[in-house]
Amino acid sequence: MAEPNAKKQDEITKCAICGNGMAHTGTVVFYRVTLETFGLDAGAIQRAHGLELQMGAAAPLAQLLGPPGDIFQQLDEKQMLVCMDCAPGEIYPLLAYADPS
Ligand SMILES: [Zn+2]
């Protein structure tokens, strides 16, 4: 029985940054990075803001009257593998901003 987190050989690609294979560093550890692109829905934001303006000081009541709508949507998703040579310079700095939860 296969390990639930195990991946097949055909799922391994070259490093998205340096173009080398994942094992060229001599270590067996590498990263898979998911990059999601989102776009704000300006119309939904304007509607929510308009409702808050109409409600004035009772703006929190506006959220009780109707559930908040979607104000952004996913436009794209890309996954890439990054080797251990490239991760310290390219990926580790981003980890400093990652949500710790
Ligand atoms: Zn690399």
Walk me through what this model shows.
The protein has 101 residues and is an alpha+beta fold. It has one domain. Helix content is 29%, strand content 21%. A two-stranded antiparallel sheet has the order 1-2. The longest helix is centred in the middle third of the chain and has 14 residues. The radius of gyration is 22 Å and the shape is elongated. The model has no long low-confidence stretch (mean pLDDT 86). Bound molecules: zinc ion.
Features:
single chain; 101 residues; alpha+beta; two-stranded antiparallel sheet; 2 strands; 21% strand; binds zinc ion
Structural class: alpha+beta
Q: How big is the Rg?
A: 22 Å
- Shape verdict: elongated
Give the SSE string: EHHEHH
Ions, cofactors and other bound molecules = zinc ion
Number of domains: 1
Distance between the termini: 32 Å
Question: Strands across the major sheet, in which order?
Answer: 1-2
List the helices and strands and how they pair.
Layout: E1 31-40, H1 42-55, H2 59-65, E2 72-82, H3 87-90, H4 92-95
Antiparallel strand pairs: 1-2
Gist of the model:
By secondary structure, this protein is α+β, with helices and mostly antiparallel strands. 29% of the residues lie in helices and 21% in strands.
